[in-house]
Amino acid sequence: MQLTSTKRTTPRIVRAMACLAIAIAISTSATAALAVDAWGPGVEKVNIRYSFIGDTLRDQYFVNKSNAVPQWTPDGGVFQYFSGAWGEGAIYWSADTGAHAMYGDILSYWRWRGYEPVLGYPYTEEIDSYDAGWCGPTSLREQHFRIGGTTTVTVCWNQNGAWEVWN
């Protein structure tokens, strides 16, 4: 007497193909979500900030992009470098500080000191200095930077060069 099974079995190859299809669908949707999350906020904010740079400042520092798309910093920020008639400009973004433009001697000083790991990300635009400001009466321009959540540094500039003041 031969025993027969009433249970239907699916061939192994069909089960394997179904598992593969499910794995591909999960992997593709996760990768797509990661790409949107990773490139979305910072790149968009850098591009928006660029669109609000005035014509004079754009001609001086923000005419040509040095790389086709914004780049990543090691800690998850985003940046884009530019060049113009007067030199280089950059827009840096972090989730804590937003997107802000830097240029000229303040940008040069910030890079010389070690970029965002040392002085943080800009959280203001470059502004005129005032006697009552962080930089003192000899400063002509300043820009404020934030490291982590609360530590702030001001990079000051006048005709003799740039310096930093820890606030």
Question: Gap between N and C termini, in Å?
Answer: 92 Å
Q: What is the element string, with H for helices and E for strands?
A: HHEEEEEHHEEEEE
Structural class of the secondary structure composition? alpha+beta
Tell me the overall shape. Answer: globular
Mean pLDDT level: 81
Largest sheet: 5 strands, antiparallel
Poorly predicted parts: 3-10, 16-38
How much helicity do the residues have? 25-40%
Backbone CA Rg: 26 Å
Total helices: the number is 4
Please report the total strand number as a whole number: 10
In percent, how much strand structure appears in the residues?
25-35%
Give the topology, please:
Elements (H helix, E strand, L loop, with lengths): L11 H40 L3 H7 L2 E2 L5 E2 L5 E7 L2 E8 L3 E6 H10 L2 H4 L1 E2 L4 E2 L12 E7 L3 E8 L2 E6 L1
Antiparallel strand pairs: 1-3, 2-3, 3-4, 4-5, 6-8, 7-8, 8-9, 9-10
Question: How would you portray this structure in words?
Answer:
This protein has one domain. The chain is built from four helices and ten strands, in the order H-H-E-E-E-E-E-H-H-E-E-E-E-E. Strands 1, 2, 3, 4 and 5 form a five-stranded antiparallel β-sheet that branches. With 167 residues, the chain is of the alpha+beta class. A hairpin with a 2-residue loop joins strand 9 (151-158) and strand 10. 26% of the residues are buried.
